[in-house]
Automatic annotation (TrEMBL):
Protein's organism: Nocardia stercoris
TM region positions: 16-34, 41-62, 68-88, 108-129, 135-153, 160-177, 197-214
Keywords noted in UniProt: Membrane, Transmembrane, Transmembrane helix
Name of this protein: Membrane-anchored protein
Record keyword Membrane present: yes
Keyword NAD: no
Source organism superkingdom: Bacteria
Length: 233
């Protein structure tokens, strides 16, 4: 949804205004999440959605406005993500999301998520445009790659490594699927349009988050949904 929402906003209004609005919404969503003393599915997933939208804009600005090639922007955000992980590990001693129980650790988490979404956007564009794979082939590539950490987890690989590898790959996978559905046929898409894709995926997210809010199935067994700072558990 972040990919299509960003493209829809940037093409529907002045790009500079769209980026500013996206940044303000991102800051507001993150502020609400960080101020929440108890886990709230709506607040958490609103923050994730806005990270997706602004992360896409951050990656696109580097290419469209600054003329940075996709390989360079992908490498830049990959190094940024690696730096976040290195500092997070050295400061906190773990990258486990099950240990995100302080504000500082949550800030590290969101920094990693923002870098992930920006890098994933650039990476998806790299495979689709620079490598000329197109959207469908790019989606298929990342769908195969995301099976690697899934299989590795079953084989006993480090669970934290498997989680973050899979998390990083969800972004180029999702972005490639969204572009494939929304972009014109002459650009290897289905031509459905960014607006309809945003509407369908937005409704899907609302329905899924409503389910989580009601069932609380995203809260670990043995943990209270009213416990402080459990949003990332």
């Amino acid at each position: 949804m972040g990919e299509s929402s960003s493209d829809f906003l940037v093409t529907g209004m002045d790009p500079a205004i769209a980026v500013v609005l996206g940044f303000l919404a991102f800051v507001a969503a993150l502020a609400l999440q960080l101020r929440a003393r108890r886990y709230n599915a709506w607040l958490y997933w609103f923050a994730v959605v806005m990270v997706g939208v602004f992360g896409t804009m951050a990656a696109d600005v580097m290419h469209v406005a600054l003329g940075v090639p996709y390989p360079v922007s992908t490498a830049f955000y990959a190094l940024t993500l690696a730096a976040v992980f290195v500092v997070w590990q050295r400061v906190e001693g773990t990258l486990s999301i099950h240990a995100v129980d302080t504000t500082r650790r949550e800030l590290f988490y969101w920094a990693a998520v923002v870098a992930t979404f920006a890098m994933g956007t650039a990476l998806g564009d790299l495979t689709a445009y620079t490598l000329h794979l197109g959207y469908a082939a790019s989606a298929a590539l990342f769908a195969v790659l995301i099976l690697v950490p899934a299989a590795g987890y079953r084989l006993g690989w480090n669970p934290i490594l498997c989680f973050w590898t899979a998390y990083v790959l969800t972004r180029p996978l999702g972005a490639s699927i969204a572009d494939w559905m929304g972009k014109p046929r002459d650009s290897s898409g289905l031509g459905l349009g960014d607006g309809p894709v945003v509407a369908v995926l937005g409704l899907a997210i609302v329905a899924l988050v409503a389910y989580l809010a009601v069932t609380k199935s995203d809260v670990q067994q043995g943990e209270s949904a009213d416990a402080p700072d459990p949003a990332l558990r």
